[in-house]
Amino acid sequence: MPDPELLRGAFRWSVTRVVTRTASVSLVGNRYSVEPALVGRRVELRFDPEDLSRIEVWHERRSFGAAVPFVIGRHVHRQVPQAAPPPVTERSGVDYLGLVETAHDADTLGRLTYRELFTDEEERS
User: Strands, E, within the chain: which ranges?
Assistant: First the structure.
């Protein structure tokens, strides 16, 4: 049996980025903070394309730990195939809103209203 971490690493994707002056890199629209010692250097980002929240930073065959996400706007890489949306089924023909409205009208219509509580004599006084 292969080591699970070794197997997981075999399927990671890798890209090269240059670290900005603010010690950050971007990947698929997301920004990550990296080690300040890497400013201006070309680094390798290793990641699982289906989980962009965890990015490993490598420079000259040495790991510099995980990149810390600033804001994650995209959680999955664009090139990862997405599941197809479920097919649109035919409508059932049941008017649920109409059923609720009919039940409400049956419960409330025909009852006494506030105006009917007073007699003509009470209204005049």
Answer: 13-18, 24-27, 30-33, 42-48, 51-59, 62-71
